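[job 4417] fold queue: 2 targets
>>> target A
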Amino acid sequence: MRRAPIVAALGAAAGSETLSVLSTQIRDVRASSPWQSDPYNTVLSVTVFAVPVLAVLIAGRLAAWQAAGGGRRGREHHRAPGDDDRERQLRRAAAALLGLAGATAVIEWIAVALRPHPWRGWTGPLIGGLTVATLALALATGLLLRRRLPRRAPGIWASDWLSDLAGPPIPRPLTGWIRRHATAVFAGLSVLAAAGVVGSLAVGEAWTDPLLIGWAFVLEASAWFALAVLGNRICVFVLRPPHRTDAAAIGFSLGMLVATAFHGPISTVPALVAVTAGAGLVGAVLASVHRPRIARVPG
């Protein structure tokens, strides 16, 4: 396997992430950012956390596979069972990473074009950084698309990311439990991630309204769960068939995010909760109408 496309994707995503962090977490820089307000900020509030999480997962699996002797050039005739799937899954994960970072860049360029805020101070350097980040993302995407693997039957995998962890460093009984309760694991990790994000926001922004904090927690937790489900469908972290609740959860999160980004002037927190939660429920109902196709999963 050629590592260059994966490494290039990680590098390009790191550049995009650096720009996003600088423009959202440093007060003076954010004040000059063209994308400091909604709807642009809503997208960045999701991708600024999702990109590094996925990048760490990709780097970890690539390093583990390389340490085990897999994917080295010249070993094409001695590939271990599951190596083809590992390469496909890593490339799919890299594509998802570039998609997240690319979506961030598109949103930022839209903000630059529409110019919702006066340009001052850090605006010029931010646009320059965005230009460099966009070029890096385009180059990494080109490298990833340059070599396409043969098509395979959908939904049939010989291995997943969890199977590579069975034994050291994760005991096999635990990996088996995770596989049987994958949805609960995704939900638990989403709750932990949301608690960390909202906790830092509450402290940094001096939030005191319990309703506002609770609303932000639901928004973050639903977004993380939706990302986990979608990410698993793309990257195959854990082999599991899709559930009807997956579509409903994704629809709820998308509805809330869209309403948050485009809600317009709202003067009270209860009104904000009502508008966004209502949009989330509508999204969940519409999405749950779609019956997911059940993928074949090896026993």
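>>> target B
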Amino acid sequence: MKTLYKTFFLLLLLPGIALATNGPLNGKYTKEKIIERQFSVNSDALLQVSNSYGNVDITTWRENRIEIQVTITTNGNNEEEVQRRLDEINVEFSDSKSLVTAKTIFKKRQTNWSFWGTKD
């Protein structure tokens, strides 16, 4: 029953993720970073994922730990902008023996534009 509950919980998170397109990378430059974490948990622990763009692949096993590997890829025709976008994306982790969460975080960009014109 616990496995069914975990599966149902995770399936609730996936529809939004599945709608994100993962088309071919057509830009001239591609940058990538990999984030890996491992957490010791109870046998009935839950995993909560909040992902904004991309795919989530889940593999179950009978061990009391959760391993997470995140691959973040950016692409475009301006190498500096591609690197800047990569630097702005991170994953925030939180863990306890009964719950592990992973959430995509986007750093807010500073802009000089407003509704009324440029800012000083």
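[job 4417] complete. Note on B: The first strand starts at residue 29 and ends at 40.
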